[in-house]
User: What shape does this take?
Amino acid sequence: MKIFSTWTWEQVKREKLYIFSVLLGSVLVAFVVITLGNMFYQQTKDVAGLIAVAVDPVVLRSIWISLSTALVATFVAFIFGVPLAYFLARKNFWGKSIIEGIVDVPLMIPHIVAGIALYGVFMRYGVIGQPLRSLGIVVTDAYAGIVVAMLFMSLPYLVDTAREGFKDVDPRLENVARSLGASHWRTFREISFPLAFPSILSGAILTWGRAISEFSAVLILAYHPISAPILIYEKFTSFGLRMSRPISVLLITICLVIFIVLRLPRWRKR
Assistant: This one.
Protein backbone atom coordinates (compact mmCIF):
# COMPACT_ATOMS: atom_id res chain seq x y z
CA MET A 1 0.00 0.00 0.00
CA LYS A 2 2.86 2.34 0.86
CA ILE A 3 4.55 1.64 -2.47
CA PHE A 4 1.27 2.24 -4.31
CA SER A 5 0.76 5.53 -2.47
CA THR A 6 4.31 6.63 -3.26
CA TRP A 7 3.89 5.68 -6.92
CA THR A 8 0.63 7.58 -7.12
CA TRP A 9 2.18 10.72 -5.65
CA GLU A 10 5.14 10.49 -8.03
CA GLN A 11 2.72 10.02 -10.90
CA VAL A 12 0.81 13.10 -9.80
CA LYS A 13 4.01 15.15 -9.66
CA ARG A 14 5.03 14.05 -13.15
CA GLU A 15 1.62 14.77 -14.60
CA LYS A 16 0.83 17.90 -12.60
CA LEU A 17 0.74 20.13 -15.68
CA TYR A 18 -1.82 17.85 -17.33
CA ILE A 19 -3.84 17.64 -14.12
CA PHE A 20 -3.77 21.42 -13.82
CA SER A 21 -4.88 21.71 -17.45
CA VAL A 22 -7.72 19.25 -16.93
CA LEU A 23 -8.95 21.08 -13.84
CA LEU A 24 -9.06 24.42 -15.62
CA GLY A 25 -10.43 22.94 -18.84
CA SER A 26 -13.17 21.18 -16.90
CA VAL A 27 -14.59 24.58 -15.99
CA LEU A 28 -15.31 25.31 -19.66
CA VAL A 29 -16.66 21.82 -20.29
CA ALA A 30 -18.91 22.10 -17.25
CA PHE A 31 -20.08 25.51 -18.42
CA VAL A 32 -21.30 24.05 -21.72
CA VAL A 33 -22.74 20.88 -20.19
CA ILE A 34 -24.62 22.70 -17.42
CA THR A 35 -26.05 25.28 -19.82
CA LEU A 36 -27.34 22.78 -22.36
CA GLY A 37 -28.11 20.10 -19.79
CA ASN A 38 -30.36 22.45 -17.85
CA MET A 39 -32.32 23.27 -20.99
CA PHE A 40 -32.82 19.59 -21.80
CA TYR A 41 -33.75 18.85 -18.18
CA GLN A 42 -36.33 21.64 -18.09
CA GLN A 43 -37.81 20.35 -21.34
CA THR A 44 -38.34 16.88 -19.85
CA LYS A 45 -41.07 18.50 -17.76
CA ASP A 46 -42.95 19.26 -20.98
CA VAL A 47 -42.47 16.25 -23.25
CA ALA A 48 -45.80 16.94 -24.92
CA GLY A 49 -44.53 20.35 -26.02
CA LEU A 50 -41.44 18.76 -27.58
CA ILE A 51 -43.55 16.21 -29.43
CA ALA A 52 -45.83 18.97 -30.65
CA VAL A 53 -43.01 20.97 -32.24
CA ALA A 54 -41.44 17.78 -33.64
CA VAL A 55 -44.51 17.27 -35.83
CA ASP A 56 -45.24 20.94 -36.53
CA PRO A 57 -44.78 21.60 -40.28
CA VAL A 58 -43.70 25.20 -39.66
CA VAL A 59 -40.97 24.12 -37.24
CA LEU A 60 -39.79 21.27 -39.45
CA ARG A 61 -39.65 23.57 -42.47
CA SER A 62 -37.60 26.15 -40.58
CA ILE A 63 -35.14 23.49 -39.42
CA TRP A 64 -34.89 22.12 -42.96
CA ILE A 65 -34.18 25.62 -44.26
CA SER A 66 -31.39 26.05 -41.71
CA LEU A 67 -29.84 22.65 -42.42
CA SER A 68 -30.03 22.95 -46.20
CA THR A 69 -28.83 26.55 -46.47
CA ALA A 70 -25.94 25.76 -44.11
CA LEU A 71 -25.02 22.81 -46.33
CA VAL A 72 -25.07 24.99 -49.45
CA ALA A 73 -22.99 27.67 -47.71
CA THR A 74 -20.48 25.04 -46.63
CA PHE A 75 -20.29 23.64 -50.16
CA VAL A 76 -19.62 27.09 -51.62
CA ALA A 77 -17.01 27.76 -48.93
CA PHE A 78 -15.39 24.42 -49.78
CA ILE A 79 -15.28 25.06 -53.54
CA PHE A 80 -13.68 28.48 -53.20
CA GLY A 81 -12.00 28.14 -49.81
CA VAL A 82 -9.91 25.00 -50.31
CA PRO A 83 -7.97 26.39 -53.32
CA LEU A 84 -7.41 29.65 -51.43
CA ALA A 85 -6.22 27.74 -48.37
CA TYR A 86 -3.80 25.69 -50.48
CA PHE A 87 -2.41 28.82 -52.11
CA LEU A 88 -1.94 30.58 -48.77
CA ALA A 89 -0.27 27.50 -47.29
CA ARG A 90 2.21 27.04 -50.12
CA LYS A 91 3.10 30.55 -51.29
CA ASN A 92 4.72 33.53 -49.61
CA PHE A 93 4.11 36.89 -51.26
CA TRP A 94 3.68 40.53 -50.47
CA GLY A 95 0.21 41.17 -49.05
CA LYS A 96 -0.33 37.60 -47.86
CA SER A 97 -1.04 38.74 -44.30
CA ILE A 98 -3.53 41.27 -45.68
CA ILE A 99 -5.47 38.55 -47.51
CA GLU A 100 -5.42 36.33 -44.43
CA GLY A 101 -6.69 39.28 -42.40
CA ILE A 102 -9.50 39.94 -44.87
CA VAL A 103 -10.57 36.30 -44.68
CA ASP A 104 -10.72 36.55 -40.88
CA VAL A 105 -12.64 39.85 -40.79
CA PRO A 106 -16.05 38.12 -40.32
CA LEU A 107 -14.71 36.68 -37.05
CA MET A 108 -14.03 40.12 -35.64
CA ILE A 109 -17.05 42.23 -36.55
CA PRO A 110 -20.46 42.12 -34.84
CA HIS A 111 -22.83 39.90 -36.77
CA ILE A 112 -25.50 42.57 -36.95
CA VAL A 113 -22.93 44.86 -38.59
CA ALA A 114 -22.13 42.14 -41.11
CA GLY A 115 -25.83 41.82 -41.88
CA ILE A 116 -26.17 45.55 -42.52
CA ALA A 117 -23.07 45.51 -44.73
CA LEU A 118 -24.41 42.56 -46.72
CA TYR A 119 -27.81 44.21 -47.05
CA GLY A 120 -26.18 47.34 -48.45
CA VAL A 121 -24.46 45.26 -51.12
CA PHE A 122 -27.30 42.88 -52.02
CA MET A 123 -30.38 45.11 -51.62
CA ARG A 124 -32.44 46.07 -54.67
CA TYR A 125 -30.15 48.95 -55.67
CA GLY A 126 -26.96 47.54 -54.16
CA VAL A 127 -23.67 47.12 -55.95
CA ILE A 128 -24.29 43.42 -56.46
CA GLY A 129 -28.02 43.28 -55.81
CA GLN A 130 -29.00 45.50 -58.74
CA PRO A 131 -27.22 43.52 -61.50
CA LEU A 132 -28.41 40.26 -59.96
CA ARG A 133 -31.97 41.57 -59.90
CA SER A 134 -31.74 42.39 -63.60
CA LEU A 135 -30.97 38.69 -64.10
CA GLY A 136 -33.99 37.71 -62.03
CA ILE A 137 -31.94 36.74 -58.97
CA VAL A 138 -33.21 38.10 -55.65
CA VAL A 139 -31.04 37.80 -52.54
CA THR A 140 -32.83 39.83 -49.87
CA ASP A 141 -35.62 37.93 -48.11
CA ALA A 142 -34.83 34.85 -50.13
CA TYR A 143 -33.21 31.43 -49.74
CA ALA A 144 -30.11 32.79 -51.45
CA GLY A 145 -29.88 35.57 -48.88
CA ILE A 146 -29.68 33.08 -46.02
CA VAL A 147 -26.89 31.25 -47.83
CA VAL A 148 -24.99 34.49 -48.44
CA ALA A 149 -25.24 35.55 -44.79
CA MET A 150 -24.17 32.13 -43.56
CA LEU A 151 -21.30 31.98 -46.04
CA PHE A 152 -19.94 35.38 -45.06
CA MET A 153 -19.95 34.61 -41.35
CA SER A 154 -18.60 31.04 -41.52
CA LEU A 155 -16.05 30.97 -44.36
CA PRO A 156 -13.02 31.77 -42.11
CA TYR A 157 -13.45 28.46 -40.30
CA LEU A 158 -12.95 26.40 -43.44
CA VAL A 159 -10.19 28.51 -44.97
CA ASP A 160 -8.14 28.76 -41.78
CA THR A 161 -8.47 25.09 -40.85
CA ALA A 162 -7.76 23.87 -44.39
CA ARG A 163 -4.73 26.16 -44.62
CA GLU A 164 -3.25 24.65 -41.47
CA GLY A 165 -3.98 21.18 -42.86
CA PHE A 166 -2.06 21.91 -46.06
CA LYS A 167 0.81 23.39 -44.03
CA ASP A 168 1.11 20.07 -42.20
CA VAL A 169 1.64 18.22 -45.50
CA ASP A 170 5.37 17.81 -46.09
CA PRO A 171 6.25 19.73 -49.30
CA ARG A 172 8.91 17.11 -50.01
CA LEU A 173 6.18 14.59 -50.75
CA GLU A 174 4.80 16.92 -53.40
CA ASN A 175 8.27 17.55 -54.81
CA VAL A 176 8.95 13.82 -55.11
CA ALA A 177 5.67 13.31 -56.95
CA ARG A 178 6.46 16.18 -59.32
CA SER A 179 9.97 14.82 -59.94
CA LEU A 180 8.43 11.48 -60.92
CA GLY A 181 6.37 13.18 -63.59
CA ALA A 182 3.08 13.87 -61.82
CA SER A 183 1.35 17.08 -62.83
CA HIS A 184 0.67 19.79 -60.28
CA TRP A 185 -3.03 18.95 -60.37
CA ARG A 186 -2.43 15.21 -59.93
CA THR A 187 -0.06 15.87 -57.04
CA PHE A 188 -2.71 17.97 -55.37
CA ARG A 189 -5.45 15.42 -56.02
CA GLU A 190 -3.55 12.32 -54.91
CA ILE A 191 -1.19 13.63 -52.22
CA SER A 192 -1.89 17.11 -50.86
CA PHE A 193 -5.67 16.93 -50.65
CA PRO A 194 -5.95 13.42 -49.13
CA LEU A 195 -3.34 14.19 -46.47
CA ALA A 196 -4.99 17.50 -45.59
CA PHE A 197 -8.51 16.06 -45.76
CA PRO A 198 -8.97 15.47 -41.99
CA SER A 199 -8.32 19.17 -41.37
CA ILE A 200 -10.51 20.16 -44.30
CA LEU A 201 -13.31 17.97 -42.95
CA SER A 202 -12.96 19.54 -39.51
CA GLY A 203 -13.15 22.97 -41.11
CA ALA A 204 -16.22 21.98 -43.10
CA ILE A 205 -17.95 20.68 -39.97
CA LEU A 206 -17.17 23.90 -38.10
CA THR A 207 -18.34 25.95 -41.08
CA TRP A 208 -21.61 24.05 -41.28
CA GLY A 209 -22.20 24.31 -37.54
CA ARG A 210 -21.43 28.02 -37.51
CA ALA A 211 -23.71 28.58 -40.49
CA ILE A 212 -26.66 26.86 -38.82
CA SER A 213 -26.31 29.06 -35.75
CA GLU A 214 -26.18 32.34 -37.66
CA PHE A 215 -28.95 34.70 -36.60
CA SER A 216 -28.14 38.42 -36.75
CA ALA A 217 -26.85 38.61 -40.32
CA VAL A 218 -29.73 36.44 -41.54
CA LEU A 219 -32.19 38.60 -39.60
CA ILE A 220 -31.11 41.68 -41.57
CA LEU A 221 -30.53 40.19 -45.00
CA ALA A 222 -33.14 37.45 -45.27
CA TYR A 223 -35.77 37.36 -42.53
CA HIS A 224 -37.85 35.23 -44.88
CA PRO A 225 -38.02 32.34 -45.51
CA ILE A 226 -37.90 31.81 -41.77
CA SER A 227 -34.96 29.71 -40.61
CA ALA A 228 -34.85 27.92 -37.26
CA PRO A 229 -32.98 30.65 -35.30
CA ILE A 230 -35.42 33.28 -36.59
CA LEU A 231 -38.40 31.12 -35.63
CA ILE A 232 -36.96 30.54 -32.16
CA TYR A 233 -36.47 34.30 -31.79
CA GLU A 234 -40.08 34.95 -32.83
CA LYS A 235 -41.42 32.36 -30.41
CA PHE A 236 -39.31 33.69 -27.55
CA THR A 237 -40.27 37.34 -28.04
CA SER A 238 -43.96 36.45 -28.39
CA PHE A 239 -44.44 33.54 -25.97
CA GLY A 240 -41.25 33.19 -23.92
CA LEU A 241 -39.40 29.98 -23.03
CA ARG A 242 -42.49 27.80 -23.12
CA MET A 243 -42.69 27.97 -26.92
CA SER A 244 -39.07 28.67 -27.84
CA ARG A 245 -37.31 26.04 -25.72
CA PRO A 246 -38.85 22.95 -27.38
CA ILE A 247 -37.73 24.14 -30.82
CA SER A 248 -34.27 24.88 -29.44
CA VAL A 249 -34.00 21.40 -27.93
CA LEU A 250 -35.14 19.79 -31.18
CA LEU A 251 -32.64 21.79 -33.25
CA ILE A 252 -29.77 21.05 -30.87
CA THR A 253 -30.62 17.34 -30.83
CA ILE A 254 -30.62 17.13 -34.62
CA CYS A 255 -27.34 19.04 -34.87
CA LEU A 256 -25.70 16.91 -32.17
CA VAL A 257 -26.63 13.71 -33.97
CA ILE A 258 -25.21 15.04 -37.24
CA PHE A 259 -22.03 16.27 -35.52
CA ILE A 260 -21.48 12.90 -33.83
CA VAL A 261 -21.91 11.05 -37.12
CA LEU A 262 -19.55 13.40 -38.97
CA ARG A 263 -16.91 13.12 -36.25
CA LEU A 264 -16.87 9.32 -36.16
CA PRO A 265 -13.26 8.07 -36.49
CA ARG A 266 -13.88 6.28 -39.78
CA TRP A 267 -14.61 9.61 -41.49
CA ARG A 268 -11.44 11.18 -40.15
CA LYS A 269 -8.80 8.66 -41.09
CA ARG A 270 -6.00 9.85 -43.32
The CA atoms of residues 160 and 252 lie 25 Å apart. The radius of gyration is 23 Å. DSSP finds 13 helices and no strands in the chain.
